[in-house]
Structures are given as structure tokens and as C-alpha cells.
Inverse folding.
């Protein structure tokens, strides 16, 4: 972990290298947020990162969504997930699916890609395998624009959890 104070004095490149992975394959968000330093809290850092993400153009947002792997998909079976995604998917048991569960996830990934043109993104840290499959089915009913917005909200949730693993939060420590 790094302290917020240490994070605030990093150069742009070091900051992007360290914070960039909280947004899957998209260090440009951290690069843009660097100029908003110093951050007064981890929540402030998170708000800034998400503000830059939401302020991006449509192509950047779609590229960010597309940078996310399928849940229990090819990257997982081939071992090419990022360390963050590997831990998150394993934490909810997506690395230990029964053949039936794997088939259900594969089918949903295919249907979702066919409908929207990007992977299904959900903050797995807030779900179970069963609730993820239920959300998959429900979100397949959404219009594409709503799914883009939903995916971005989920990406911000993922970033919050990843930041908690990365940056020491003295405010949260005081509350405990």
C-alpha cells in the first residue's frame, strides 16, 4: 500500500503506473487525474478519477469498457487476466465453476457481446455467481446507451475497491 501523501508527490508517470490499473487497461484516466493533485482523501481521488472517466469522449469510454475481460471467459481460462481481475473473479468463485455454470457464463457472454458489442461489466466484489447471472439476464433487456452508462458506473465501483487495496486511507482508519 501507498499513503495518500506519498501518492500526491509522485510524478505523472509514476502516478499513472501505480494508479492506472484501477481502471482496466486504461492508464489515461490516471494520467488525466494527476493534474488534480493533491487529493485530500481516497474518496476525493476516486471522485476525480471517475470525473475524468465520465468526461472522456464516447470512443474512449467504449475502449475502457472493451478493456474489461469476459467473466469466466477466454482470458481467465488462458491465464491472461490482469492480477486485479484474476483476484476479483476468484473472489466470487468464477475460477471454480461447474461445467453447467461455465456454460451459462459462456452463453451469457456471447449473447451480451452480440447485443452490445462490448463485454458485460459488473463489480463482482458486490455479487455472487448467481446474482451475476441474474444481472446478466436483466441487463440484456437494456438499450445500448443505458448499458454503456451502467458499465461505467460498475467500472467506478471496481475502481473504488481497487483503490482500497492500493492506497492507505487514514480517514477510514480513524473511523475504525
Amino acid at each position: 500500500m501507498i499513503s495518500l501523501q506519498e501518492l500526491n508527490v509522485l510524478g505523472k508517470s509514476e502516478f499513472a503506473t501505480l494508479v492506472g490499473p484501477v481502471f482496466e487497461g486504461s492508464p489515461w484516466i490516471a494520467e488525466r487525474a494527476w493534474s488534480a493533485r493533491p487529493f485530500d482523501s481516497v474518496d476525493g481521488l476516486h471522485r476525480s478519477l471517475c470525473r475524468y472517466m465520465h468526461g472522456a469522449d464516447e470512443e474512449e469510454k467504449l475502449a475502457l469498457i472493451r478493456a474489461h475481460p469476459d467473466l469466466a471467459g477466454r482470458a481467465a481460462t488462458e491465464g491472461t487476466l490482469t492480477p486485479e481481475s484474476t483476484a476479483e473473479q476468484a473472489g466470487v468463485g468464477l475460477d471454480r465453476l461447474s461445467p453447467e455454470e461455465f456454460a451459462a457464463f459462456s452463453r451469457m457472454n456471447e449473447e451480451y457481446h452480440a447485443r452490445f458489442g462490448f463485454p458485460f461489466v459488473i463489480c463482482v466484489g458486490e455479487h455472487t455467481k448467481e446474482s451475476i447471472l441474474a444481472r446478466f439476464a436483466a441487463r440484456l433487456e437494456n438499450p445500448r446507451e443505458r448499458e454503456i452508462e451502467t458499465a461505467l458506473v460498475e467500472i467506478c465501483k471496481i475502481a473504488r475497491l481497487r483503490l482500497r487495496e492500493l492506497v492507505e486511507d487514514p480517514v477510514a482508519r480513524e473511523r475504525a
